[in-house]
Design a protein that fits this description.
The protein is of the alpha+beta class and 604 residues long. It has four domains: 53 residues, no CATH class; 116 residues, no CATH class; 177 residues, Barwin-like endoglucanases; 132 residues, no CATH class. Helix content is 28%, strand content 17%. Strands 16-22-19-21-20-23 form a six-stranded mixed β-barrel. A five-stranded mixed beta sheet has the order 1-3-4-5-2, with no helix packed on it. A hairpin with a 4-residue loop joins strand 4 and strand 5. Helix 17 packs antiparallel against helix 18. The protein starts with a strand and ends in a 14-residue tail after the last helix.
């Protein structure tokens, strides 16, 4: 960049820009030689031979990513469970199978599969006692006839394949411990009821292995880990913690310039279906590998598959990426780890999951876990029951089958001058032909590789690998930080932000909780049974105390914040009155002080 003492003349085809964003200006500086002309107080920028002249004063801008905060955590059911086995209310608050098996007799709603040889119910195709194949019984709920088919010709009714019947749970837990060689710990968590059509349960042995490795199961029988998506086309070995030797084994022989891979600081183009996952998820998947190997050896009498001891051993193994509301899992290969809570992959890989790679969170699971433990029979037959399940697996990502958003991804080394001229004339993106995108390469060999970038970076992540939103504890702390940031930025109207938060979050939350309080159920502190209304006995059938599921503090948790905001900021008389009305409504329900609430007997 050259500083001149006086403005230079420019040709007649020069274009005078009234405004230019800092980001576009930065790209312009990198792609074209620029001369800055200093006059009295107004800086002028004249390109050397490009015909561009910028004449206004420049202000600084801060680029931020607007979207949901990053997230990486194990996918848990609510509450988390070790095995898909129904125990109803027998297991207490923790739904403990061990506690449920301590009674004199255990009943559950389960699939009608029986061993005719041993005359005992079974949850497996083969009897765990004698090894013979079990049979399915169909009993008509009307005429009680035992049938060979799930339809009663006499009653003209479909016969359910499950029933509420006794099950030798204690014996099955003892047999599972002996077979797996793992001692059960309390609580050994199951589910209250199965959601699938035939009420098919999972083998208890799988749950025992998961419990011993501190793992839980999802509704379809798999072990999953959620992570936020992030697109990536290039990386350096130093960024992902993978050795040069290992990367060579995975097929990375050269960098983007064609030089042989020898240094951890060389820039490499990531292959289409390779992924870089959070380090925490890698540790979790190592435990999952141990679970699968133990299952193969002890339960299926097969050799181990993974034999991994740490996250380094997991490099090169395959996983499945699956987005919610979809039923197709996409195969990916682990090549490294990141300290952030995001899963890095190519735009095409994320798009194959039907995602735009804009901060959505998807789940990852080991491919072998899906092939071995997933079953469609575990899923609900209700509407939406088959969503968020790997019913199909796509082994190869084809860019032309991805979503159109991914096709608009730029794959050039630099942005040409024509691009900036097109932005000046406000052309639509579809009309810009000077920038090569993935769409222009579809149905060709180069749709899979030779992606480039316009600007390099020194690291994959910043010095802060976690955003403040994900590290702050309560919602109040997050909101206070948001208000502090708004007050520091001149372009932001803090009062408008406060108004929007009150109208879209605080007020609906208080109203919704107050309405739920009037419709709440009552829960037993021991067995967990819920009642729509408090029984006349004033306690549960098991003899223990009943408590509310919604309390006053949960209703008032945002009231104090809302009152403080309407007093500090000029949000208008309507919102101030609305908050005051809500406070009056809460006081009418609970009373202003303890003891203010009247009983029905006070009106005698």
């Amino acid at each position: 960049m050259e500083k001149l003492g006086a403005p230079h003349d420019v040709s007649a085809d020069n274009v005078i820009l009234k405004e230019i964003e800092a980001e576009i200006f930065y790209q312009l500086l990198l792609s074209n030689p620029i001369k800055i002309v200093e006059t009295d107080s107004v800086p002028q920028i004249i390109s050397s031979g490009t015909g561009i002249r910028i004449k206004p004063k420049f202000s600084a801008s801060i680029g931020v990513r607007i979207g949901r905060p990053e997230k990486a955590a194990a996918r848990l059911m609510k509450p988390p469970v070790h095995t898909l086995f129904p125990i109803g209310n027998k297991g207490g608050m923790t739904r403990d199978l061990v506690k449920a098996s301590m009674g004199s007799e255990f009943y559950c709603n389960i699939f009608n599969r029986t061993c005719k040889n041993c005359n005992i119910p079974s949850i497996s195709i083969k009897c765990q006692n004698c090894g013979t194949k079990t049979t399915i019984e169909h009993t008509c709920s009307i005429c009680r006839s035992v049938l060979d088919a799930p339809f009663c010709q006499k009653c003209k009714k479909k016969v359910p394949t499950y029933s509420f019947k006794p099950f030798p749970l204690k014996d099955r837990i003892l047999a599972a411990q002996e077979k797996i060689g793992v001692r059960v710990q309390e609580p050994f968590k199951g589910v209250m009821e199965l959601i699938n059509q035939d009420r098919i349960a999972e083998p208890l042995e799988k749950g025992l292995i998961r419990q011993s490795l501190d793992l839980t199961v999802f509704k379809d029988g798999t072990v999953r880990y959620d992570a936020t998506n992030s697109p990536l086309t290039h990386f350096k070995p130093a960024w992902i913690g993978t050795s040069i030797e290992k990367l060579r084994e995975l097929g990375y022989d050269s960098d983007i310039d064609g030089n042989a891979l020898a240094s951890p600081d060389q820039t490499i183009e990531i292959k289409m279906q390779d992924v870089i996952i959070p380090l925490e998820s890698g540790k979790y998947l190592v435990q999952t590998c141990k679970y699968i190997d133990t299952e193969l050896i002890k339960f299926y009498n097969k050799p181990a598959f993974y034999d991994v001891k740490n996250t380094d051993d997991l490099i090169g193994h395959l996983l499945i990426g699956l987005a919610p509301h979809t039923s197709v899992g996409i195969v990916g290969r682990i090549i490294g780890y990141t300290e952030t809570h995001v899963c890095f992959g190519t735009p095409n890989w994320h798009s194959a999951k039907r995602r735009d790679a804009d901060g959505d969170a998807d789940s990852i699971m080991l491919l072998m876990d899906s092939l071995l433990n997933f079953s469609r029979l575990f899923l609900s037959d209700k509407i939406g029951g088959l969503m968020d399940a790997p019913l199909l697996i796509q082994p190869v990502v084809l860019p032309h089958e991805s979503q159109p958003q991914a096709h608009n991804f730029e794959v050039v080394k630099k942005l040409p001058l024509e691009f900036f001229e097109d932005t000046i004339s406000a052309k639509k993106s579809s009309e810009v032909k000077s920038v090569e995108i993935i769409k222009t390469r579809l149905e060709t060999e180069r749709q899979f590789y030779d992606y480039y970038f316009t600007h390099t970076t020194s690291a994959l992540v910043t010095s802060r690998s976690r955003s403040a939103y994900s590290t702050l504890g309560s919602m109040l702390d997050k909101f206070d930080m948001q208000i502090r940031n708004a007050e520091l930025i001149s372009a932001v109207d803090t009062t408008e932000i406060v108004t929007n938060v009150i109208t879209t979050h605080l007020v609906p939350d208080i109203i919704g909780n107050l309405r739920a309080y009037g419709r709440q159920k009552f829960r037993c502190t021991s067995c967990g049974r819920k009642y729509r209304r408090t029984p006349l006995l004033q306690h549960c059938v098991c003899g223990n105390k009943l408590i509310q599921t919604i309390t006053r503090p949960s209703i008032e948790k945002y009231l104090r914040l809302a009152k403080r905001l309407v007093e500090k900021y000029d949000v208008g008389p309507y919102l101030k009155g609305r908050i005051g009305t809500l406070e009056d409504e809460i006081n009418l329900v609970f009373g202003k002080r303890s003891g203010d609430q009247l009983l029905l007997t006070d009106y005698n």
